[in-house]
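Request: Give me one sample?
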Amino acid sequence: MSGASHEIEIRVRYQETDGQRRLHHANYFTYFEMGRTEMLRARGATYRQFEDAGLMMVVSEATCRYRAPAAYDDLLTLRTWVEQMGGASIKHGYEVIREGVIIATGATVVVCVDAEGKVRRLPDWLVE
């Protein structure tokens, strides 16, 4: 999983905005989840594989630094990468970019757990 970054484009939808037609701050975290999911898919795996194996990836930490606002109908690029992998966790980094300018940065830590919520090692197929 570690290595190069992965990028997706996201157009800000009206329902994702606040009363000022700015992207609501909470939606950046939804975008981060989209980035993690699509990065995994681009590497030939899906989140469904975790569920089929009786595992889940839960967010244990999330941060976002807002540098400039995004607005309704803006076309954004979300860059996602793996910063660090532990035995049971993955730290991802993010950049939200509009017209070549980074408007937000963030990070999440996801932890692998089983159906009972007990921490489990990352599957070998993911680590390789």
